[in-house]
Amino acid sequence: MLSLEELAVRLFDAGAVRLGDIEAKIGRRTPIYFDLRVVVSHPQIMLSVAQHLEKLAREIDHDLLCGVPYAALPLAAVMSVNTDTPMIMKRKETKMYATKRILEGIFEKNQKCLVVEDVVTSGGSLMETVRTLRSESLIVTHAVVVLDRDQGGASVLKQNGIHVKSIFTLTGLLKILSEAGKISEETVQIILDHIKECQFSNLDFMKDNLELLPA
Ligand SMILES: O=C(O)c1cc(=O)[nH]c(=O)n1[C@@H]1O[C@H](COP(=O)(O)O)[C@@H](O)[C@H]1O
After folding, report:
1. The pLDDT of residue 91
2. 166 in contact with ligand 1, CB cutoff 6 A
3. CATH of the domain at 118
4. How many structural domains comprise the chain?
5. Which of 103, 130, 184, 207 lies at a 20 to 30 A Cα distance from 93?
6. Is the beta carbon of 31 within 6 A of some atom in ligand 1?
């Protein structure tokens, strides 16, 4: 298995870390965007990301895996095969014909479902999936994620009963990439200032992002 440092550099070289003034979800702007969708083109990187998630998942009691659509779906599938853990999939929309299911795959009430997500910023996307799983009587208490952007999403999720374990935090990732000579100190500082300013626990920031708050 690749070390965290090697994995971070491989992800960077594959184009998973985009720098600049980038538009993120719902019009948010960010000086760094982590795009995990590129890993489907790099099977060895995808395998390594999945293995690191499996390591985090080993300490969590679970019967099922569920990836948040879409970027985490291939990762959840690789984890499912590697660990022989059944997976379920959440549809973006409820199917309007045949089975009318929102969740695909076999599950029973009160099974423990571990959620797999690529990036946590506010925690909104992950929470949306958790709500669906809970509405289908599954027990959801943990999530494993590739990157926690350190913007307060993990504590918002904790308030909603979800403990998040991440392979990388954005602060940790920046340290690795700057030590590897991939990003400059100046860029690191711009991103750290952004994280500090754009906190989902900060009420002034939240006023402009109310639609992102988990209910
Ligand atoms: O929009 C984002 O905040 C975001 C930042 C980033 O670096 N990478 C990234 O993939 N995202 C997207 O934002 C989602 C997480 O944002 P939250 O729903 O606010 O936690 C991810 O599932 C992605 O769709």
Report:
1. 86
2. no
3. 3.40.50.2020
4. 1
5. 207
6. no
